[in-house]
Design goal:
The complex is a heterodimer of chains A (201) and B (253). With 201 residues, chain A is of the alpha/beta class. Chain A has 6 helices and 14 strands. Chain A has an 8-stranded mixed sheet, with helices on both faces. In chain A, strands 6-5-7-11 form a 4-stranded mixed sheet, covered by helices on one side. In chain A, strands 8-10 form a two-stranded antiparallel ribbon. Chain B has 253 residues and is of the alpha/beta class. The chains are: A alpha/beta (201), B alpha/beta (253).
Chain lengths: 201, 253
């Protein structure tokens, strides 16, 4: 069973529906015991960084998730759930993340419209299982104002050009993360969800 | 490179798509979820549902629509119409909407934008602006209540303000062009798009594919919204995108 972590913010149903559409066994939960017994965890993307970590702490599942990631339970972070893997974010004041990967999350400061909103392509940096079966150059749906700056590049699976290149996907063993929204990226996105479900299953 | 977005817009009344001429003679035009699925399969980049239901049951029909759409449609969609509170926003997002569009309530209570952005992130707060040119000053005035009431706000100033408050995007409708099929108001679109640093969706007036290209190129819009040209089957999404690509506009094909 894959558990989508509900931290009581924003749109979670789309993620659930995308996993169902992809044929995965999935449930939505905020309980520590469900998280502990899950075969894989998905932390989805809508919400602001600070509020999201506050909610995870209030629900008493922040440490449960952190420990699950550390114990190599398959993890897919989408947008905010991807950004939370890094050391800290500057969104609405400095907020600490899970610090699985050293690096920070910063606001786009470049000569482009912000948020980076719409469909953009991802260049692959290696043969990650995340993009298996998806030809390079396909478009994914993005919607974010903050982006990750990893301190070391080995975990980076994909980059995207928006003014400059930024890191749009990581894949390091059991830890997967996407800045874009696979659940909103039509058939191509469902393919990523299938890949993760297969890996976690 | 970020692609320009093509967005079909559906007017919803009591859970059904309606079409009308100048907001009168509304006719049933089908099930929104089926239409949304069709547009999504054809390659639409995003969808907008604008609920024009007047009754107090509006939120119930909106939530039901959002819930059904999220089970079938795997591209982003925005829901607008009668959203007044942060609770309204949360309900719609939790039902499966990716973004909400606020208009009248945001003019009356700008805190709705800032509170919504702080809670759910700017990326899901779309501010709709209905603007009409004032022949005297040559500037554009903001109207609310579906274009019925001017509020004495300059459209550019208001656009800058909603950006500051945390809106992630502006859905800009020219009331002068809306329904004419004579083309978008390019001047208005460019003034707003160049005046803010958040994406601007051009709306109102699309009659042919050149109009879309003009709004994206000369109007500097980030996305174009259209209703009739898609609903009446004048153009498919695919042929629209193929045309725009030939004009050198980046699109997702």
């Amino acid at each position: 069973m894959i558990v989508i972590v509900d931290y009581k913010l924003g749109n979670i149903r789309s993620v659930e529906n995308a996993f169902r559409k992809a044929g995965a066994k999935v449930s939505v939960s905020s309980s520590a015991s469900d998280i502990l017994s899950a075969d894989g965890l998905v932390v989805p993307g809508v919400g602001a960084f600070k509020k999201a970590t506050e909610n995870l702490k209030e629900l008493n599942i922040y440490d449960t998730i952190l420990n699950s990631i550390k114990s190599q339970k398959p993890y897919l972070g989408i947008c905010l759930g991807f950004q939370m893997l890094f050391t800290e974010s500057s969104e609405y004041g400095k907020t600490s993340g899970f610090d699985i990967f050293p690096g920070k999350v910063e606001k786009f400061e470049r000569d482009v419209k912000i948020p980076h909103m719409g469909w953009n392509s991802v260049s692959y940096l290696n043969d990650s299982p995340m993009f298996e079966g998806i030809p390079e150059g396909n478009y994914f749906y993005f919607d974010h104002s903050y982006y990750v700056i990893p301190s070391e590049g080995s975990v980076v699976a994909g980059t995207t050009d928006y003014g400059n290149e930024f890191v749009s996907a990581v894949c390091a063993g059991s830890i997967w993360g996407a800045q874009f929204h696979p659940e909103k990226s039509a058939d191509i996105g469902l393919e990523i969800i299938r890949n993760f479900s297969k890996y976690a299953g | 490179m970020l692609a320009k977005r093509i967005i079909p817009c559906m007017d919803i009344k009591d859970g059904r798509i309606v079409k009308g001429v100048e907001f009168k003679n509304l006719k049933d035009a089908g099930d929104p979820v089926e239409a949304a699925k069709k547009y999504s399969d054809e390659g639409a980049d995003e969808l907008v549902f604008l609920d024009i239901t007047a009754s107090s049951d509006r939120r119930k029909t909106q939530i039901e629509l959002v819930r059904r759409t999220s089970e079938e449609v795997f591209i982003p969609y925005t829901v607008g119409g009668g959203i007044k509170t942060v609770k309204d926003i949360n309900q719609l997002l939790r039902a499966g909407a990716d973004k909400v569009s606020v208009n009248t309530a945001a003019v009356q209570n700008p805190g709705l934008i800032s509170k919504g952005a702080e809670e759910f992130g700017s990326q899901c707060i779309v501010c709709a602006i209905d603007a009409k040119k004032d022949s005297g000053s040559g500037r554009w005035q903001v109207y609310i209540y579906g274009g019925r009431e001017p509020v004495g706000l300059d459209a550019l100033e208001w656009a800058k303000k909603v950006q500051k408050l945390g809106a992630g995007e502006i859905l800009l409708t020219s009331m002068d062009a809306d329904g004419t099929q004579d083309g978008y108001d390019i001047e208005l679109t460019r003034v707003i798009s160049e005046g803010v640093n958040i994406p601007v969706i051009a709306s109102g007036g699309a009659g042919n594919l050149k109009h879309l290209a003009d709004a994206l190129k000369e109007g500097k819009a980030d996305a174009v919204l259209a209703a009739s040209i898609f609903h009446y089957g004048t153009y498919t999404i695919k042929e629209t995108k193929e045309y725009l690509k030939k004009q050198g506009i980046p699109v997702r094909l």
